[in-house]
Amino acid sequence: MRYDDRMVGRTHWIQSLPQPPRVSIGQYSTTGRKEANDDFYGVLIPEEPLVGNKGCAAAIADGMSGSAQGRIASETCIKTFLTDYFSTPESWTVKTSVGQVLRALNRWLHGQGLALTASEYGMVSTFTGLVLKSAMAHIFHVGDCRLSRISGGSLEPLTQDHHLRFAGGRTYLCRAMGADVDVEVDYRSLPVLAGDVFIFTTDGVHEYIRDRDILRLVEENADDLDAAARAIVAVAYEGGSPDNLTCQIVRIDRPGEDDANAHFQKLQERPFPPPLEPGMILDGYRILRELHASKRTQIYLAVDVETEERVALKTPSPNFQDDPSYIEMFSNEEWVGRWIDSPHVLKVRDSQRRRQFLYYVTEYVEGQSLRQWMHDHPRPSLPEVRVIAEQIAVGLRAFHRKEVIHQDLKPENILIDRFGTVKIIDFGSTRIAGLEEVASVTENHGLLGTIDYTAPEYLLGVVGSRRSDLFALGVIVYEMVTGKLPYGKGFATKRAAETLTYVSARHHNPDIPIWVDKAIAKAVHREPVRRYEALSEFLYDLSHPNPKFLETRPTPLIERNPVAFWRWVSTLLFIITLLLLYDVAT
């Protein structure tokens, strides 16, 4: 049985990036010598822009003959994989997206199987899936279906059969979807080239046909892959296969590699908007006034003329019209704002109107930045600090759940509305794991965040992580309670980042409990592995004295006040030098 979307055995053009990927599909399945067909297979190629960000997918499944609902299990595997993968956030990697889908699917199959039958194997199926994205093949495999590749004139199996073979030729599955509450899924990725052919087969096929026959039949039927799939199944049937027989073929006619000039042209499809003045109307938004301007962007307060809702418009600076990296980062900022759904993250509006220019629309937050709040509250109470830190952490969790790192968390990028709700803004420096798999002609060079709040590992050439955002949050908490920075200013070099020394918050504000100081110190530790593993741990230690932080061991002066320590050292060395000079003179 098959499940597909707009394609069966033809050459299918995927309108994607300016040089889109192109694949050809061939499919065939038969019950063979059995009464019913428990096999299922399918291909799904979405429309733009999803195909550019998520790729296309194909899969095959074989319901376990010993299970009560094998046919339903295989169909569920294919349909769920092909639909749910494309519903996962575009910021997720392929591995994470499919892994989440398959884990949830496996638990559902296992639970349904136990509910439907007393047998331990109620709804069990093998599964082999392929995602083609940005000239890479991502393979997911459980069971004894098989995915092979024809490349350079040879056929190479890409999966390993998960079965045990016993005397008499009988085989038993040792791993399958729905067989247990947890499932181990094999994963691998590899680059693909034009002309590569991927062949999915169930065990009823590949156990009864030689590799050289598959190669010959694909070559003989290169113009009709449906015919090639039927021929492969026919040879396996004639070879004595007693099972269902299914073959699906995916040929890569164009792998989807990006073209530099075409990609830049796509980014520039919308021109930069002209300078906006109060009273002007842009695509249905009436400009009220300018809220903020910098050398990189402008933000305007506007009114939607249809709904009368107040919104904010963010436009790019005309200084960067010829900078592809800037344009890509500006576009990423809009995507992130739509992906992240949290009351503590600024929401980007998904406008239904056609836009003539490059800009995006966000909710309008009536309030002030955290920087201004800190100016107005130079010595806030710890409860006030905790409330703000907790809301920032909730917003960060929303980023991290979708594998997005903010990378530029600072007081200027945090808004507090008139009700006290905290919102994280400015997503131009975010690192989006899923989009790192999409071929891009632009590269981000240098430090993206603001140096005072940027974790030291960035200066050492290490890719940022969730703990890098935690570092920034720790710096913000330190600054709220002290008005200072934990390392002062001046660690903008690799050498400085390697020798940072934390200045105790109690040095600037003696009223801070020692356990709060040590919690902040751990959050902003220069080594990522020595910071908190989770935001929740940091927040808990800010409100509950950690016994480890209450030890009475006196803190060395170099930790409490490194400036005073080195002053004393310098003074002592000066005195020793004077004494030596006196001895020499006398």
Description:
- The protein is of the alpha+beta class and 586 residues long.
- It folds into three domains: 2-255, 4-Layer Sandwich (Phosphatase 2c, domain 1), CATH 3.60.40.10; 263-363, 2-Layer Sandwich (Phosphorylase Kinase, domain 1); 384-553, Transferase(Phosphotransferase) domain 1 (Transferase(Phosphotransferase), domain 1), CATH 1.10.510.10.
- Helices cover 34% and strands 22% of the residues.
- It contains 18 helices and 24 strands.
- It has a six-stranded mixed beta sheet with strand order 1-4-5-6-7-12. A six-stranded antiparallel beta sheet has the order 2-3-14-13-8-9. Strands 15-16-17-18-19 form a five-stranded antiparallel beta sheet, with helices on one face.
- α10 (382-401) packs antiparallel against α12, α10 runs antiparallel to α16 and α15 (514-523) packs antiparallel against α16 (535-543).
Task: Please bin the fraction of helical residues.
Answer: 25-40%
Give the DSSP E fraction (strand runs of 2 or more residues).
Answer: 15-25%
CATH architecture classification name of the largest domain: 4-Layer Sandwich
Average pLDDT rating: 85
The computed structural class is alpha+beta
The number of distinct helices, counting runs of at least 4 residues, comes to 18
How is the largest sheet built, in terms of strand order? 1-4-5-6-7-12
Number of separate structural domains: 3
Characterize the main sheet: 6 strands, mixed
Task: Determine the N-to-C terminus distance.
Answer: 104 Å
